[in-house]
Design a protein that fits this description.
Elements (H helix, E strand, L loop, with lengths): L8 E4 L5 H12 L3 E6 L12 H4 L4 H14 L3 H10 L4 E5 L5 H15 L4 E4 L14 H8 L4 H17 L2 E6 L12 H21 L4 E8 L4 H12 L26 H7 L11 E5 L2 E4 L18 H13 L5 H10 L1
Parallel strand pairs: 1-2, 1-4, 2-3, 4-5, 5-6, 6-7
Antiparallel strand pairs: 7-8
Helix pairs in contact: 1-4, 1-10, 3-9, 5-7, 6-8
Length: about 325
């Protein structure tokens, strides 16, 4: 047991399984009292797979999926129990943080049970796949209702407590998909871009109160990882999760979610008080800091408005130059 978070109280959403579970347990090992959370008791089951898709799998693929699903089972109480069994302090809260009132009750549970809230880690998320031209409103709302909506909800309720004590740490889970990602997930990409924007905005608003707000995009072997693998096998060719096949994420190379937990613990310490408004990519032993979006090049006309003919001449070389968007780069590489 460490002491880097001794005396701190943490709320970790989405901590019944996977990354959230690893972070909650790691924080408890560093001395924090933890409120764990997921929507309801028991395993939440598949995120994107269903029985109709499972039927499309080969026998050995079905067995592999079943085994991985069993291994990934868990909820807020099983995580809290694991913490208590190891000598830590934890309570479970079941409820959907995408509901504003429920999110308030989650934060209040930390205050009622442990007297305060020092750390909020938002990990809850969901996903699905669909070409944007076939995506339903319900599918969009389901994904974007968690990120960034639930994150706003918990932050909104936690901040008055943190501001009063003039200290606090907020860490939000985003995804590299916020840059687009090349996956048939316009809703998921938008949701995670929303998390990044929310993180930047909150960081600027609360820094004067001694509160930091950062985000991390994880690379870890979770339920999402093996479900994507199974989904690809179950779908007809050309209808899987990948737009460009050479951008697949290799399942067997994904590190354990336990590997990224120490960095999230570090961001939650007093020593990380000077880090705020930053977005990191974390996976295994690798930690990367994303650059902030800045102007890359400029094109300015003095003394009048641009004409389309002028822009046709000036933009390709003087604004774009040799630059190609990540989308064009992926497309050209996929065609090779």
């Amino acid at each position: 047991m460490g002491e880097n978070l001794k005396g701190k109280v943490a709320v970790v959403t989405g901590s019944g399984q996977g990354i959230g579970r690893s972070i909650a347990i790691a924080m408890a090992k560093e001395g924090a009292k933890v409120v764990t959370n997921n929507r309801k008791p028991g395993s939440t089951g598949f995120a994107i797979m269903d029985e109709s898709l499972v039927k499309n799998l080969k026998s050995e693929e079905k067995e592999a999926l079943k085994k991985k699903s069993e291994e990934a089972k868990g909820d807020a109480e099983t995580t809290a129990k694991a913490i208590r069994d190891a000598g830590g302090e934890a309570v479970a809260f079941f409820g959907d943080a995408s509901n504003f009132k429920t999110a308030g009750e989650l934060i209040q549970t930390a205050v009622d049970k442990f007297g305060k809230i020092d750390i909020l880690v938002n990990v809850a998320g969901t996903f699905s796949f669909s070409p944007i031209w076939e995506m339903s409103e319900e599918m969009w709302d389901h994904v974007c209702g968690v990120k960034p909506k639930a994150y706003f909800n918990t932050i909104r309720h936690a901040l008055p407590h943190m501001m009063k004590q003039r200290s606090g740490r907020i860490v939000n889970c985003t995804s590299g998909a916020f840059k687009g990602g090349g996956i048939r997930q316009a809703h998921y990409s938008a949701a995670n871009a929303g998390v990044v924007g929310l993180t930047f905005a909150v960081a600027q608003e609360v820094i004067e109160y001694g509160i930091t707000c950062n985000a991390f995009a994880p690379n870890a072997l979770t339920r999402a990882s093996f479900e994507i693998d199974a989904y690809e096998k179950a779908m007809p060719e050309g209808q899987g999760p990948w737009v460009f096949n050479n951008y697949k994420l290799p399942l067997n190379m994904s590190p354990s979610p336990d590997d990224l937990a120490p960095f999230i613990c570090y961001l939650s310490t007093d020593d990380a008080s000077q880090i705020s408004g930053s977005v990191f990519f974390v996976g295994g032993p690798s930690i990367h800091l994303y650059s902030e979006a800045e102007w890359q090049s400029s094109l300015i006309k003095y003394g009048g408005r641009w004409t389309v003919d002028e822009l046709k001449q000036q933009v390709p070389m003087n604004l774009m130059g040799m630059h190609k968007s990540s989308t064009m780069q992926m497309y050209e590489m996929a065609k090779k």
